[in-house]
Amino acid sequence: DVKVTQSSRYLVKRTGEKVFLECVQDMDHENMFWYRQDPGLGLRLIYFSYDVKMKEKGDIPEGYSVSREKKERFSLILESASTNQTSMYLCASSLTGEGHNEQFFGPGTRLTVL
Amino acid sequence: LAKTTQPISMDSYEGQEVNITCSHNNIATNDYITWYQQFPSQGPRFIIQGYKTKVTNEVASLFIPADRKSSTLSLPRVSLSDTAVYYCLVGAWEDTPLVFGKGTRLSVIA
Fold first, then answer.
1. Does residue B69 lie within any of the structural domains?
2. What CATH number has the domain bearing residue A26?
3. Quick one: which of A30, A14, A21, A19 has its CA closest to A108?
4. CATH code of B59's domain
5. How many angstroms separate the CA of residue B41 from the nearest CA in chain A?
6. 8 Å CB contact of B93 and A99
7. Is residue A104 included in any domain, yes or no?
8. How far off is chain B from A106, nearest CA to CA, in Å?
């Protein structure tokens, strides 16, 4: 059973703080993704990675960076948190290959920036 | 990637069959149609995928007409626990990642 875990379910940070959101998957998936979800806006892709040390910008990368030093771990970094980054953050992973683009999601981290 | 259009919200009573239609006029030959379900405070989860005609599993059925320009997710005899957001995604297996969009919010009423 595929499992994607995120380091925190709820997080409260102050404006200007550096924030790390961690995601770990246990099924040896090549691809990992970070989304944010806001009411009325659906899921928006921030960054994704298709291999260790590789990253690609999604639709809304501004204000975020990512790190993938190990295959199973994908970190989202908010260099200087701002109130407009208050959101639900969802991590996902998927395999590469024919018939394998199903994404498996973690439970999400609800981040509040004060 | 083909653009999809689906209703923003739907309401249904318990025990009814619910059909959610997704339009994807620009679907390409290699594209599959995939539906995800997202319960409140959880991440989305895959429920069904198809290429043409009809696909059925323990959760839902997916109907795809011959021209493949639309698809319909059918949920038989819904219960309160089917209240969720349902996303229609279109793309080929090598398209990573697919675009989720805003989905259809289904509310099931007792």
1. yes
2. 2.60.40.10
3. A21
4. 2.60.40.10
5. 7
6. yes
7. no
8. 6
CB pairs A-B closer than 8 Å: 62
- B21 is written with which tokens? 């239609």
Is A43 close to B95, i.e. CB distance below 8 A? no
**Rounded CA separation B19/A81 (Å):** 41
Query: Could you give the strand order of the β-sheet that contains B61-64, starting from the edge strand earlier in sequence?
Result: B18-23, B70-75, B61-64, B53-56
Q: Tell me the CB-side half-sphere exposure of residue B70, using CA atoms within 13 A.
A: 9
The single-letter code of the amino acid at B62 is L
Query: HSE-up of A43 (CA within 13 Å, CB side)?
Result: 29
Tens of pLDDT along chain B (110 residues)?
Answer: 668 999 999 999 999 999 999 999 999 998 999 999 999 889 999 999 999 989 999 999 999 999 999 999 999 999 999 999 999 999 887 777 888 888 999 999 99
